[in-house]
Amino acid sequence: MAERIVMRVGESLVAGPPMTAAEPEVAIGEMDGPMGTAFANLLGDQVKGHSRVLALMNTDVMVRPPTICVSKVTVKDSRYTSILMGTVQYAIARGVLDSVANGDIPKEKANDLGIICSVWLNPGIVDVEDLDHQALFDVHRKATAQAIHKAMNNQPSIDWLLENQDKVVHKYFEKGLKGE
């Protein structure tokens, strides 16, 4: 049996065509521990504008490990809701399954683990007239799988972070320094 996974955390940023960037943050852990408590609290404590939904393959086909999607953006627009709880929700579900298929999540743990996925979808997406749903799907699927990969492999490692802390500069900090 695979080792116990109390809680792992990861993130990813994948850019794509305008307004399609994905920046998921995930927490993964055994449902009989703190992850299960957090998961149940999120699912049962809905907040207006920040609905929590399960990652679904279709309207009644939940992915495993069970994954709850939490919007980082306050949802105010029905088109935004349709994109978030359609294309993006499906992409997250597929990214989770990709993580099982590639071995980042042990298949034998698929019923024991839970995933919380904080989802960022650009609010400007509602103004994109010819939205490429396939590109949006591909970006969010890839970002979800990458975030899970990083979480399950404890990346970046503390050694890498210590070695590179003076080489990595946050892009918005740089913009601030430049007065942008």
Descriptors:
180 residues; alpha+beta; 5-stranded mixed sheet; two-stranded antiparallel ribbon; 5 helices; 7 strands
Give the gist of this structure.
This protein has helices spanning 34-44, 78-101, 133-152, 158-164, 171-177; strands at residues 8-11, 25-30, 52-54, 56-58, 61-62, 67-71, 113-119. It is an alpha+beta fold.
Note down, in words, how this protein is organized.
This protein is an alpha+beta fold and 180 residues long. It is built from 5 helices and 7 strands; from the N terminus they run ββαββββαβααα. A 5-stranded mixed beta sheet has the order 1-2-7-6-3, sandwiched between helices. β6, α2 and β7 form a beta-alpha-beta unit. The chain is globular. It starts with 7 loop residues before the first strand and ends with a helix. The mean pLDDT is 93.
Topology:
Elements: E1 8-11, E2 25-30, H1 34-44, E3 52-54, E4 56-58, E5 61-62, E6 67-71, H2 78-101, E7 113-119, H3 133-152, H4 158-164, H5 171-177
Parallel strand pairs: 6-7
Antiparallel strand pairs: 1-2, 2-7, 3-6, 4-5
